[in-house]
């Protein structure tokens, strides 16, 4: 640890589990203070464990909850320098079976939720002279998978949002990048595998590196993008996927 984020304040949505939690741990280890906005009340005990961390219970689908989280961050730690719009849900069903309600659910969390978070972060970062905004896309925003129409469409939207916002806010000092993880070993993935809905051996075989991605590997990319080490990096969609999106053979 190098103290790369010392003195910074970071807001993470969906920070109570999986990738968001791993990023929270990595940001704290690099010296940032944190605000976790999550629906899951478990965020409160995580905040206690991490120290210098505030947990706000709320949804990224409600602008008022997002504003409340930024206000709480500013009141406790000062301006938010780093924001990771990470909260997201999966979706897995043949397209012809996807109801309008299910489509709206996925889009409202994965796409509108990221937009609302990014808009609030951008507003405040522009006013304070800069910041680093990270949006959680997926390799399925770069390449496609069947029976995940809402997921793929929302993540492609998130990847493009990072590019579009980077153009708009670059001269205001706000860098905007997206993360595009491959299959990351999370409790959610293990659960799907245990219920026979995902074949982990097939996923490993399809990945050039021959293995799943660890949450800490995504977190290290997030630390880099959030830090001054990435001072000229904006508008990028960074795949952390063991080579999945590079591979086009067989
Ligand atoms: P996870 O389910 O472990 O964690 C998601 C967190 O988001 C949870 O704490 C949940 O309570 C929270 N959340 C859900 N809806 C919310 C809402 N409306 N408002 C606030 N918080 C909400 O998931 P994960 O696997 O860590 O995924 C995190 C992000 O990474 C998602 O955007 C996901 O699409 C993306 N991603 C995951 C993988 C993977 O393999 N796990 C791969 C690529 C991208």
UniProtKB/TrEMBL annotation:
GO MF annotation, one: oxidoreductase activity
Matching CDD domains: SDR_c (cd05233)
Listed Pfam families: adh_short_C2
SUPFAM superfamilies registered for this protein in UniProt: NAD(P)-binding Rossmann-fold domains (SSF51735)
Entry keyword set: Oxidoreductase
Extent of the signal sequence: none
InterPro entries the UniProt entry points to: NAD(P)-bd_dom_sf (IPR036291), Sc_DH/Rdtase_CS (IPR020904), SDR_fam (IPR002347)
PROSITE patterns in the cross-refs: ADH_SHORT (PS00061)
Family membership: Belongs to the short-chain dehydrogenases/reductases (SDR) family.
Record-linked NCBIfam families: PRK07231.1
Stated name of the protein: NAD(P)-dependent dehydrogenase (Short-subunit alcohol dehydrogenase family)
């Amino acid at each position: 640890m190098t103290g790369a984020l010392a003195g910074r304040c970071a807001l993470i949505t969906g920070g109570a589990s999986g990738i968001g939690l791993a990023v929270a741990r990595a940001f704290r280890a690099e010296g940032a203070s944190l605000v976790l906005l999550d629906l899951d009340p478990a965020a409160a005990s995580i905040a206690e464990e991490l120290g210098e961390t505030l947990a706000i219970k709320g949804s990224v689908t409600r602008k008022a909850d997002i504003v409340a989280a930024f206000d709480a961050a500013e009141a406790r730690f000062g301006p938010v320098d780093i924001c990771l719009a990470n909260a997201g849900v999966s979706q897995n069903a043949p397209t012809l079976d996807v109801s309008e309600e299910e489509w709206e659910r996925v889009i409202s969390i994965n796409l509108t939720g990221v937009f609302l978070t990014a808009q609030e972060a951008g507003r405040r970062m522009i006013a304070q002279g800069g910041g680093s905004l990270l949006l959680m896309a997926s390799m399925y925003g770069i390449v496609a998978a069947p029976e995940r129409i809402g997921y793929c469409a929302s993540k492609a939207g998130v990847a493009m949002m990072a590019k579009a916002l980077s153009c708009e806010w670059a001269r205001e000092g706000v860098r905007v990048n997206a993360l595009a993880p491959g299959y990351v070993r999370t409790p959610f993935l293990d659960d799907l595998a245990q219920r026979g809905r995902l074949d982990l051996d097939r996923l490993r075989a399809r990945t050039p590196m021959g293995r799943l991605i660890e949450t800490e590997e995504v977190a290290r990319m997030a630390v880099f993008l959030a830090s001054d080490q990435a001072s000229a990096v904006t508008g990028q969609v960074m795949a952390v996927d063991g080579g999945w999106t590079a591979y086009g053979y067989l």
